[in-house]
Amino acid sequence: MTGDMQAFFEVHRGLLREGPGLPEDVHWALAQIKPPARVLDAACGPGADTATLAEALPQARIEAVEMVPHFVTEARERTAGFGDRIMVLEADMLSMSGPYDLIWCAGAVYFAGIARALGAWRKALSPGGYVAFSEPVLEPGASKAARRFWDGEGQVSSEAQVLSQVQAAGYRVLETRRIVGAAWEAYYTPMQAHIDALRAANLADAVAQACDQAEAEMSNWRAARDEVAYLLILARCE
Ligand SMILES: C[S@@+](CC[C@H](N)C(=O)[O-])C[C@H]1O[C@@H](n2cnc3c(N)ncnc32)[C@H](O)[C@@H]1O
Prior knowledge:
This protein has 238 residues and is α/β, with parallel strands linked by helices. The protein contains ten helices and seven strands.
């Protein structure tokens, strides 16, 4: 791992979650489908949503996968109280075979792209199984501040483009929900507290730079907080 990556992970350690989201988002998806018996939390990060899924689905068997080892450890610690119906694996979310009745994926489909991720999950879903995933969105008429937030993140699609990619992958979109405001607070507030603690200690230069970058991101988010959004999509394989 490069020094920059190590510094990045110093900032991204011990957080509640690694992207925007709230338990209500998980509950919103579950409220619309038959209770799933087998669930995958794909790219679970430190396991906040895995724990919410486990609480909401006391009968379900849940697998959570993540490729960063220390997130795997954190997710295992967070979900240890649920016993052996929860399994957290260090694995590639695209190589899981299931079958799953629901694949939940908060803020990670964009690593692979919608076509590739939904294509890989087609064979991992049980007949009639669901996916629920959140994806960054940016509308063509977005403010300069909102565009600045996503600068450097590659191409961010509009809501209409995201939905057409889901349909092109052979899925029917059932419902959508915009993730703005409080869900981002849930990500950034613990991160700011962690940065404050790191700064109070004697920081290596690389870690100080990673803190600066994270704080610049938060400041850009504050400047457009009602506009910066993920779209949560509930879809079914056709
Ligand atoms: C933005 S974070 C979101 C984590 C978590 N879902 C959450 O909301 O806290 C994205 C995560 O996806 C993981 N990831 C990306 N590609 C992956 C893959 N192919 N398999 C497993 N994990 C992956 C990253 O390691 C990272 O932890």
